[in-house]
Write a structure and sequence with these properties.
51% helix; mainly alpha; two-stranded parallel ribbon
Length: 187
């Protein structure tokens, strides 16, 4: 929903927007939702499967990090960060080729929780960085015409660490946002 909302807002502002799905051994439904979002907001959509590049990168890092392939959560997080950084390399190369910009799709909730990857999530412009994930992002997505299947989908970073964002946190985005609002209300 974050990517779809960001793309829809930029398109409504008059930008030429290209949506890019970049699966890396990802649930095919997540890629399908990305393509559905591009079609619904009527933007160009590229699908670049980075699975082979991910495999090569992980293999090249094994001599430095022999634990990278184990199933410990710390190893899964490191592999997830590799995925995020490969995606950002791809986006910045495409943006450079098109003389464009890369859009950050992080929202306020993710940023405040530290739920992002350095050199893997931050782009050139950040249209939704001040919006809470639990209600502002989905409501605005609904208003600008993002399909319901997308703004109601289980939030996931697609990095293979856990079964969605909230499973990684151990609490819901609503609980996080209520806490953030309470912390911001301290006088």
């Amino acid at each position: 929903v974050d990517s779809a909302l960001s793309a829809a807002l930029l398109k409504k502002a008059g930008w030429d927007v290209i949506g890019v799905t970049m699966p890396i051994y990802q649930n095919p439904n997540e890629t399908t939702l990305g393509i559905e979002a591009c079609n619904a907001i009527e933007i160009e959509c590229l699908n670049i499967d980075l699975s082979d590049e991910y495999d090569r990168t992980v293999q090249s890092l094994l001599p430095l990090d022999p634990e990278l392939l184990n199933e410990a959560k710390a190893s899964k997080i490191r592999r997830g960060n590799i995925r995020a950084r490969l995606r950002m390399i791809t986006l910045y190369n495409l943006a450079s080729a098109k003389k464009g910009l890369v859009v950050s799709t992080d929202n306020y909730s993710e940023l405040a929780a530290g739920f992002w990857t350095l050199h893997g999530d931050v782009g050139d412009i950040s249209p939704i960085q001040a919006l809470t994930k639990s209600w502002e992002v989905p409501m605005l997505a609904k208003i600008v015409g993002v399909p319901e299947s997308i703004w109601r989908a289980t939030p996931t970073d697609g990095l293979g660490v856990d079964d969605g964002d909230e499973a990684q946190f151990g609490f819901s985005y609503l609980e996080l946002d209520l806490m953030l609002l309470a912390l911001g209300d301290l006088s």
